[in-house]
Structure formats: structure tokens, C-alpha cells
Write a structure and sequence with these properties.
The complex is a heterodimer of chains A (about 70) and B (about 475).
Chain A: H1 2-15, E1 36-37, H2 47-51, E2 57-58, E3 61-65
Antiparallel strand pairs in A: 2-3
Chain B: E1 6-8, E2 11-24, E3 61-62, H1 63-75, E4 83-84, E5 87-90, E6 100-103, E7 113-118, E8 124-136, E9 140-142, E10 149-153, E11 160-166, H2 173-190, E12 202-211, E13 221-226, H3 229-248, E14 256-261, E15 266-272, E16 282-283, E17 290-291, H4 294-302, H5 308-319, H6 323-329, H7 333-343, H8 348-366, H9 377-388, H10 394-407, H11 411-418, H12 426-439, H13 441-448, H14 454-465, H15 472-483
Parallel strand pairs in B: 13-14
Antiparallel strand pairs in B: 1-2, 2-11, 2-12, 4-17, 5-6, 5-16, 7-8, 8-11, 9-10, 12-13, 14-15
Helix pairs in contact in B: 2-3, 5-6, 7-9, 8-10, 9-10, 12-13, 12-14, 12-15, 14-15
The chains are: A alpha+beta (about 70), B alpha+beta (about 475).
């Protein structure tokens, strides 16, 4: 068991031999342009849906335990 | 370099200030959803399922908000990054339903730029801009509605903000005020933020530290969410004083976030300062890197309005006005436009004097702004035309302007209604003067014996007798002639 673990750690150590100084971190494979929306109001006015899962509410507001003294 | 110093027991201290300004982007919809970005509205009605952080909802960036950030970057002479990225800034608070704010951390859309400020003594300085990035606003918490609960309204959650970070280049409260006023003026000219600090559409976090001349920076404190330029200036002074007292007593200033209490005139500790790693920033996997095209940036640049500095210089050259006058006239675009309508192809000197004098005076008195002024640019232009062509004199014109503000009538209508036409008929003026010289024979004798100051008395009497309508130049000339007879 110990031998196997040491083998794995040794293998991981090998990764440190690669110089990645100037390689930017890879954050994904998507190179497509992101979709963008036009500046038009297309949503909103659905208060009941928005509040439907609220554990607690008063009238049109969500309520939470007081967060300031 | 500013010479502002605070005297402590151990000598003079210099202050070092950097500002982070949050400017709400002018747009119809929010940064990542189609909900309205309009201020106000019934609670929780300008909210989409994206803004409320419902599971599975995906953000889609609003192109106009990106354009507004680019315009602002161009207005700040800053570099525009054709590739930027959105990151998640994680923190837990009731008005942030997603549990993270979508912001730009490692790769902002706008890089280094600069703002030129002008101080009271006429000197100018450049304040560096480190970066500008796009991020979401949070919702609003209300703590005074219920003894045990806070109320949450998400109307503002997801509205686009620009965070504009300055270099620690500011060295006095005055410079901080000048920087904020200049930044607000540029944003308003660009139409990218209304700069309304009372409604919270522009707020500042103020980083303050103190040091002895020539030293490296000492620990700074951040004063959060200061919502007026005056308070920013006060907070800097008070916080610097507090830090100096700590250093001079042998203590050390802790890096922390503080709150400015303008009623008590003090800053109070809010929490120890978070570092970037406390927020566990990472690239938002819901959003691809934001890539914009160079051509599009150039199109936006070509469509930028004339900015304050350029407008100032042009007004000075076109109308021959002073640096001070051009500064006042370009504080707002509306004022500059108004002035140009009044002064175009007319007597520019007369237009400046009247706008900065009686016209602004009347606006202040009636509580109107340039946009709500009861007297239009065309109306003022007509009035000044009546002075230029000698229909009325300057003194009568003041009376007419007041009447215009009250009645809303045109200058010529008022002149006709009240019979205010200037008397330039020298015969009429001369006979009036002769009568006055007879009635005041004693004064005439004194004048002749060398009391020159009485000249003004005779002018006054003549104008009074003619109900102010005499041509002042004609009165002067005739008086001189008749008194020397």
C-alpha cells in the first residue's frame, strides 16, 4: 500500500518538472463568442414567482433574520 | 505635487488616498438579464429568475452595458481590453441571492487611464486610473421595518455597475473632491452614468493612509460607501487624523473596512479587511470570455460626444471667454448648449456676462435648472438682441428678465406692454437735464466749485426722471456738455 502511494506521489511530482511560467490557466475549451443580449426589457413583473420559494416574506419583500444590530 | 500636510506632534504628515467609485451604468435592462434596470419600481418587480438566483438560470451579457463601459474607458483615456473575463466573487449576504457577485477580477475590460483635475489655485494634476470593470449590483436591505427581520428588495440586484479604481495618487481632500467632480462630469457627458450620489447611482469607497514625506506607503483603511463628495472630503480628513494619532502614540494601524458617520464626525470599524482570497474568485463557468472587436471599439470612439476639456478649449477660442468662464459654462452639457444657442452669431461677451450674472441668479432664485428654466435660450437671445440694437438699456433689461421669469412672456412683448423702449431722442433727454439742473441749482454750484462726484447724482436724477429708459451713453454725453456750459 505504502509503495503504491509513493508511486502515485512520485508520478504527481513529475508534473512539477514542466515549466508553466508563461502559460495562462486554462479555464475552458469554448472559443466561441459569447451570446449577447440587446438592451431591451424582456423580463420582470413576476413577483409571486420570485417570492414563491421564500421561507419567509412580508408583503412584497423577502425577509431574513435581522442582519444588523 | 500637493503641499497639503497635517501637522502632528512628530511633524508633518502626508496623506495618500485612492478611490474606488461604483457608477451605475445607464441602460434599460440589467447586466445579465432582461429585467428593467430603472430606479425605483414596486419592490421585487424588476427581477427575473436570473437575478433571484434560481437554479439553472444562465446569465447572458447585455451588449449595451459593455458598450457603456468601453465609452467610459475611452473618455478616461484608458486602454480597452478586447478580451476580458467575468469571475465569481463569493460572499454570503441576504441581498445577494446567487451567493456570488459576477465581477471582473483578473481581466477587467478597461485598463490604465487618467483623469486631469483642476484645483482652486488653477493648477492641474493627473490622477491615474488603475482599471475599470463591470459587475453586478446587489439588492437592497432594509433594517428599520421590523424589530427582528430585515426586508429584501431585489430590484437593483443585477443592475450593471462600473467600478472605477484610481491609483493612490490623491494627496488632499481637495484633490479627492476635484477627482470625483471631474469623473462625474465625464460620466454625465458620456451618458454612461447619471452621477446622482443621493440616489446611490454613484458611490465611493475611500482608501486612506498617512506617511511621512519620502516614506513608502503605510497600512491603509478603506471607508465604505460614502455617498457625497463633501462626505468623502470630510471622511479623508477625519480618518487621516485618527491614523496619525495611532502612529504617534506608538501603535499600528490595522488594515480594515470602516464606516463614515457624518453625524458624529468619525469613522468606525466595520470588519477586518478581506483579502482577495477570502472571496474565492474563479472564472464564472456560465460565461465565456468577453471578446469585443477592435472595429466596434473604434465605432464607439467615433460616436463619442465632445468631452468637457475639449468643449472648454473650443468655447474659449470661439467666443473669446476666460478659462474661469469656460469652466462654469461646461459644468454641464446643458449649460454649454444653452450658452451656444444664446451666443451664436451674437455678442458673446454680452451673452457670457448675462448668463453668469443675472440669468444664473434668476435660476437660483426660482429654484429652476437649465433644463426647467422658464426662459429658453431663444428667449434670452432675444432679450440680449434688444440691448445690442439699443431698444432697451442694460438696467431695463434686468427688469425685463425678471418679468420673463415670472410671466413667461417674450422680451419684446414685455417691452411693448410696459412701454420700456429706450429714449434715445437727445432733445427729450436734454430738456429733462435742463429742468434738473434748474431744480438743483445748489448742487450745480457745488459741482462747478469742484465737487466732481456730483456727476453721478445728476445721472441718477436724470435716469429717475426718465423712469430708467434713457440711453445711458446719451445721458452721459449730454450731461458733460451741459455741465461745462
Amino acid at each position: 500500500m505504502r509503495e503504491e502511494l509513493n508511486g502515485i506521489l512520485g508520478w504527481v511530482d513529475q508534473l512539477n518538472e514542466v515549466d508553466v511560467t508563461d502559460v495562462p490557466p486554462m479555464i475552458g475549451t469554448g472559443l466561441a463568442m459569447p451570446r449577447q443580449r440587446e438592451d431591451v426589457v424582456t423580463d420582470g413583473d413576476k413577483r409571486e414567482a420570485i417570492l414563491s420559494n421564500a421561507p419567509d416574506r412580508v408583503g412584497p419583500y423577502f425577509t431574513v433574520p435581522k442582519v444588523v444590530e | 505635487m500637493s503641499s497639503y500636510r497635517i501637522e502632528g506632534n512628530t511633524g508633518a504628515w502626508e496623506i495618500v488616498v485612492g478611490l474606488e467609485v461604483h457608477a451605475q451604468v445607464i441602460s434599460h435592462a440589467k447586466l445579465f438579464s432582461g429585467a428593467s434596470a430603472e430606479y425605483g419600481g414596486e419592490p421585487n418587480t424588476h427581477v427575473s429568475l436570473v437575478d433571484a438566483g434560481f437554479p439553472g438560470m444562465l446569465p447572458v451579457v447585455n451588449r449595451e452595458c459593455v458598450a457603456q463601459a468601453v465609452r467610459t474607458g475611452l473618455g478616461l483615456n484608458a486602454e480597452i481590453h478586447l478580451m476580458s473575463r467575468f469571475d465569481r466573487k463569493n460572499y454570503f449576504y441576504a441581498d445577494l441571492p446567487q451567493g456570488y457577485q459576477i465581477s471582473q477580477f483578473a481581466h477587467p475590460i478597461v485598463g490604465e487611464g487618467k483623469v486631469e483635475i483642476e484645483l482652486a489655485d488653477g493648477t492641474t494634476r493627473h490622477i491615474g486610473v488603475t482599471r475599470l470593470h463591470l459587475e453586478q449590483d446587489a439588492g437592497k436591505s432594509m433594517h428599520d421595518q421590523d424589530p427582528l427581520r430585515s426586508f429584501i428588495d431585489l430590484n437593483r440586484a443585477g443592475v450593471a455597475l462600473m467600478e472605477i479604481v484610481s491609483e493612490p495618487d490623491i494627496r488632499s481632500p481637495e484633490e479627492a473632491g476635484a477627482y470625483l467632480r471631474k469623473l462625474r462630469q465625464i460620466l454625465r457627458y458620456l451618458g454612461t452614468c447619471d452621477g446622482n450620489m443621493e440616489e446611490g447611482s454613484m458611490r465611493a469607497d475611500v482608501n486612506v493612509s498617512v506617511r511621512k514625506a519620502g516614506e513608502a506607503y503605510r497600512t491603509r483603511c478603506e471607508i465604505k460607501n460614502v455617498n457625497s463628495i463633501r462626505y468623502v472630503m470630510q471622511a479623508i480628513e477625519i480618518e487621516a487624523q485618527r491614523q496619525i494619532e495611532i502612529w504617534e502614540a506608538g501603535g499600528t494601524v490595522d488594515q480594515e473596512t470602516r464606516l463614515f458617520d457624518h453625524v458624529r464626525g468619525e469613522t468606525r470599524s466595520l470588519r477586518s479587511k478581506e483579502d482577495a482570497h477570502d472571496y474565492r474568485y474563479f472564472p464564472d463557468p456560465d460565461l465565456l470570455p468577453l471578446v469585443i472587436e477592435r472595429d466596434w471599439v473604434e465605432d464607439l470612439r467615433a460616436a463619442l460626444p465632445e468631452l468637457p476639456e475639449a468643449k472648454r478649449t473650443r468655447l474659449e477660442q470661439t467666443y473669446g471667454i476666460s478659462r474661469y468662464e469656460s469652466g462654469v459654462l461646461t459644468v454641464e452639457q446643458g449649460i454649454a448648449d444653452f450658452f451656444e444657442q444664446v451666443a451664436r452669431d451674437a455678442d458673446a461677451r454680452l451673452a457670457v456676462n448675462w448668463m453668469l450674472g443675472d440669468f444664473f441668479g434668476a435660476l437660483n432664485r426660482t429654484g429652476a435648472t437649465i433644463e426647467t428654466s422658464p426662459v429658453s435660450a431663444e428667449g434670452l437671445r432675444e432679450l440680449l438682441g434688444l440691448i445690442s440694437d439699443s431698444t432697451i438699456n442694460g438696467k431695463i433689461a434686468k427688469e425685463v428678465l425678471e418679468d420673463m421669469f415670472e410671466s413667461g412672456e417674450s422680451a419684446s412683448a414685455i417691452v411693448e406692454r410696459k412701454g420700456l423702449r429706450q429714449v434715445t431722442d437727445t432733445g427729450a433727454i436734454e430738456s429733462e437735464i435742463r429742468t434738473i439742473l434748474q431744480t438743483h441749482a445748489d448742487k450745480l454750484a457745488e459741482y462747478k466749485s469742484g465737487k466732481d462726484k456730483l456727476f453721478g447724482f445728476f445721472v441718477g436724477q436724470t435716469m429717475k426722471a426718465m423712469k430708467g429708459k434713457a440711453n445711458p451713453a446719451a445721458v452721459n454725453d449730454l450731461l458733460k456738455k451741459l455741465l461745462s456750459e
